[in-house]
Amino acid sequence: MIRPTRKLINRTLRFALGAVFLAAGIGKLATMDRASSDDLFKATVGASPAARVIFCITEAALGCWLIVGVLPQISSVASMAMCSAFLGFMAAELRKPAPRECGCFGISKPAATTGEARAGLARSIALNVGMMMAAGELLGSSRRRTVTQGDQDVPAAAEISSLHAS
Fold first, then answer.
1. Residues in Cβ contact with 18 at an 8 Å cutoff, skipping those fewer than 6 apart
2. Closest CA to 25 of 17, 136, 96
3. Residues with Cβ < 8 Å from 64, sequence gap 6 or more?
4. How far apart, in whole angstroms, are the C-alpha atoms of residue 117 and residue 46?
5. Residues linked to residue 146 through DSSP beta bridges, in sequence order
6. Residues in CB range of 10: below 8 A, 6 or more apart
7. Are 41 and 54 in contact (CB under 8 A)?
8. Predicted confidence (pLDDT) per residue in 44-91, tens digit
């Protein structure tokens, strides 16, 4: 039986978070030339194909960075910053009388009604909040140093103080 350790949980969170960014970057890149590209992604990044391609590649690169796990603190901060920016744009769009669809993972078919667009934006906001929580957990857990003592993970500072006490 696999015992969920902090290391396994962190790897799983990093992989899941990275997979979402990677899928979003590839999805946007794959559907960038669709006729229904009047979405929040196009409005945010602009109509320039070069700017949109650079944005997609950057988002996919962030996903790969998270999956690989090099410098996890910095990649966590970068993902939190990107999610915060996305949240701001989506929340502003949700307040409009006729919001555009998100376009987070590319466009498969345009939203038929304003209600569909709002529901899609609400789902994207919920996903972003979850992603920010995962990135925050990764950032916090990568900053905590622990040592294994028997079956327990003990903070390193407590281990050092117990050594000095004996």
1. 62, 63, 64, 65, 66, 67, 68
2. 17
3. 18, 22
4. 20
5. 155
6. 72, 138, 141, 142
7. no
8. 777 778 888 898 899 999 999 999 988 888 888 998 888 888 888 888
